[in-house]
Amino acid sequence: MAYIPKTGRTNMHVLVVEDDAVLADGLSRALGGHAMQVQLVADGLQADQILQRAGTGAVDVVVLDIGLPGIDGFEVVRRLRARGATVPVLLLTARDAVEDRVRGLEQGADDYLVKPFASAELVARVRALARRNAARPAALSLGDLALDAATKRARVGEKVIELSVREWAVLEYLLQHASRVVSKQQIIDAILPWGEDLSLNAVEVYISRLRLKIADAGVTLRTIRGFGYMLELAA
Amino acid sequence: MMQLHSIRLRLLKWLIPPILLMNLGAAALAYALAPPALRDAVLRTLVLLEIVLALACVALIWFSVSNGLRPLSRLRAELNQREGDDLAPVDAAHVPYELEPVVSALNGLLAKVGEGAQARQDFLANVAHQLRTPLAGLKTQLEWLGARQAQADSAESVRLMLSATERMIRQTNQLLSLARAEPQHFEKARLEPLALDVLVAEAVQPLVDLASLKDIDIGFDLQPAIISGDRFLLRDLLDNLVDNAIRYTPAQGAVTVTVRPGLLMVEDNGPGIPPDKREQVFSRYVRLDDKVHGSGLGLAIVRDIAAVHGARLTLSQPAGGHGALFMVKFS
Question: A140-233: what CATH class?
Fold first, then answer.
């Protein structure tokens, strides 16, 4: 459980607090496989001390079990928020009792995941939390498809593809939620933050245009019948 | 000797002979003391009187005992009316003094049975919760290994382990929902107004992931619907209905979840369930197809959850005439 010092701001730094050794190791492998730097801690008090010492921005996301030796996860979050720290916290719970979830969120946790969960789900949630807190949008990519938010440029492999403003917004949203189902309404809400009106049919038009433009990118833009879409790696 | 199980017959058995003997003695005395000229008339009158009195006596005893037993039959009717899981104590305020010890003994037994059921449910929930962390560890490790295993035979072995782990996880979750949906654990206070369409929309991701594994086209048709319910139990109900549909629908089939005001429907285009088997599928541990993996608990959980919501659960065939249509109608 060596602490890996950070080399730059490119990698996300995740503090994982979990006392079950097998699960902690699994979490570290799952997150580590997605270019995240993982620090493991098995004790609530120790986690509290590390978070106390860590400067702002030193930890990007905390993955926190509730049942811990020392102090429990609820108390770790409470102390963290009492110090005014805003680092996002993802709670892991073995109980799905309503009180546990509500209490965790009341103490200031940002999200929770009920054990056991899929590694992909964990990675997606951690990424979403980190993004919510990040100042600058990162470069997005899936398969051969890459979006650079800074230059507003989309590429398939080496080839630059031309996208309208709306198409760009739809694709950016889909990429931000890669391998996740997004509803048509979510897409509309995301690309029209100023409350303009757009029909569900218009979304279908953007999607079919995007499908043509990213046909060679090694990704599939699936339709979830009657609900929405999911952008994922081609099988 | 014949055993008499009826209180009425027992009473008659013990009361009639002494009364008869007393009457016969009195009659013999009257006969002996009567003047000889009147003896015939006295004898006739006495026999007649004896018959009438004996019949009246039997009727009186029968009537009074029946009357005395009425609280007992009320108690029987009350107990007969109860649902199998209703372990509330019997109200002792309206039973006669003589029945009080019986009712209090019965209540003692009911309480013990209730405690036993509670302990069993708590144990079940506790075990299920305890299993979750090791299962989470196992699953994460296997997923990591599966993503890296290049050799085909090792990859297949990892895939099998992962699928066994998924089955264990599913079983564990089902034990928990079963414990949660037990009617005696369920308080009506937990029902709250909630949007059924939003509840389904929140569950879309895991349902799509599950359907993708079997290459099943899952679709949704959601209209706004507000009902009174428990969101965690209803999520269990939805998960189990869709899981069941996916399980019994062949690859490349279709499953559709529909929400209409007061209505939740899950439809598939699989083989369907013959009308004479439709009642059976909701029983615990009944599986119609042995070739498909399953615990036989899923639809029993669905039935329990529908019951605590006072919802009507029906199974029929979709309009297309092919497959199964599960419908939950909320009142």
Answer: mainly alpha
Of B137, B169, B220, the CB nearest to A225: B220
pLDDT for B57-109, tens place per residue? 888 888 888 888 888 888 888 888 877 667 778 887 777 888 888 888 988 99
Q: Establish how many alpha carbons lie within 13 A of residue A105's alpha carbon, considering only the half-sphere containing its beta carbon.
A: 8
Among the partner-chain residues A95, A183, A225, the one whose CB lies closest to the CB of B201 is A183
ipTM for this prediction: 0.71
> In the prediction, which pLDDT does A96 show?
67
d(C-alpha B67, C-alpha B320), whole Å: 61
Nearest in space to B233 (alpha carbons), one of B329, B309, B168 = B309
Which DSSP state fits B10? H
**CATH superfamily of the A12-133 domain:** Response regulator (3.40.50.2300)
Residue of A16, A20, A23 to mutate, testing the B interface (most B Cβ within 10 Å of its Cβ): A23
User: Nearest CA to CA, how far is A142 from chain B (Å)?
Assistant: 17
The CA-based angle B133-A51-A26, given to 5 degrees, is 30
Q: Do A94 and B221 touch (CB under 8 A)?
A: no
User: Could you read off the pLDDT of B265-308 as tens digits, one per residue?
Assistant: 999 999 888 888 888 888 776 666 666 666 678 888 899 889 88
